[in-house]
Amino acid sequence: MSVFISGATGFIAQHIVAQLLENDFKVIGSVRSQEKADKLLKQFNNNENLTLEIVKDISLPNAFHEVFAKYKGKIKYVLHTSSPFFFDSDDYEKDLLIPALNGTENILNAILDHAADTVERVVITSSEAAMIDITRYFDPTFFYDENSWNPTSHEEALINGVHAYTASKKFAEKYAWDFIEEHKNQIKFALTTVNPCNVFGPQQFDENVTSPMNTSCEIINKLVHSSVDTKVDRTTMGKFIDVRDVAKAHLLALQNDNLIGERLLLISSGFDEQSILDIINDDFPALKGKIRVGNPGTGALQNWKGSIHDNSKTRKLLRFEFLPLKKSVDDTVSQILRHEEKL
Ligand code: NDP
């Protein structure tokens, strides 16, 4: 029996695929083109347990039906990770809201139509974004936990790219929980959602270091390439989790019964540009005197002043310690410098 993972080329998904293969799962991944499939297969050394299929656009009607029909009787686990993650767009509806919702709708209906009798577990990569009120994220009186829901309406989602992305994750996740309830007599799978905050950490493969990098890692990449007089951006701040922990949570969610029906809020700590700069300046002599220093010791890591969260339930359920910001930043920066032959 196999695991199906959508969006296998993604930053997070590649780590999940690596951990699945390390644990001897047979993996079927979807990617958007043959070129991307060829590259990814080569990166995973043509591992015989990895098969890739083309799903060009998760937004299109019945996007996953053909793949699920092809592997009828063979898929036991489904991981849905693919969803657009960026903020710049001229058309929030088309670029963010529709693919997120349709992608979730399409994959769940493909299971219902072609694999209802074999799929036992579905894990959806949702987001902290589905849990927070984005207008109050920096408000110390705003509290959220695993039970919280982003209150954004469809109309409010169209205000800007950040509202649209965060709402896209809420609408997609909500659809999934409603689907489970509506079809409970026709399916046998249980659902878990993984809700990470900003995900940092190295790419699965050094050659995936690009400029710009994927949306979350670009926060660190931008600082590695800053100059001494670049201003510290006081608005770039939030909470962080390492990509290896995110992948691990997906694997546990597939297998552990205690995670059935849960929304796992993955947060290790707060961060901002100052706390990342402190780590880079302390740990990378090659960058000393070349990048911004700011005011060491005054960052969010020591001094988070925004929203309060409680993810103690998730930590207790997962039973592993999340990697700290220092480890995540160090490994991300080492990989960038190694790739650029600056170490
Ligand atoms: P990436 O941009 O690296 O990965 C996104 C994946 O989705 C890629 O495989 C991409 O394909 C695929 N995809 C996007 N749109 C479509 C589409 N219309 N049709 C088919 N495939 C599509 O992002 P991440 O790995 O960072 O994100 C993965 C998931 O994690 C997303 O659901 C995101 O919302 C969620 N998440 C990410 C966080 C983060 O900080 N990174 C935080 C919280 C949640 P391609 O490679 O071809 O572009």
UniProtKB/TrEMBL annotation:
Alphabetized Gene3D superfamilies for the sequence: NAD(P)-binding Rossmann-like Domain (3.40.50.720)
Keywords annotated in UniProt: Oxidoreductase
Highest taxon of the lineage: Eukaryota
GO molecular function, one term: oxidoreductase activity, acting on the CH-OH group of donors, NAD or NADP as acceptor
Domain NAD-dependent epimerase/dehydratase intervals: 3-257
Leader sequence segment: none
One Pfam family hit: Epimerase
SUPFAM superfamilies attached to this UniProt entry: NAD(P)-binding Rossmann-fold domains (SSF51735)
CDD domains from the UniProt entry: AR_SDR_e
Stored PANTHER family: NAD DEPENDENT EPIMERASE/DEHYDRATASE (PTHR10366), NADPH-DEPENDENT METHYLGLYOXAL REDUCTASE GRE2 (PTHR10366:SF844)
Family statement: Belongs to the NAD(P)-dependent epimerase/dehydratase family. Dihydroflavonol-4-reductase subfamily.
Name by which UniProt lists this protein: NAD-dependent epimerase/dehydratase domain-containing protein
The encoding gene: NDAI0D00910
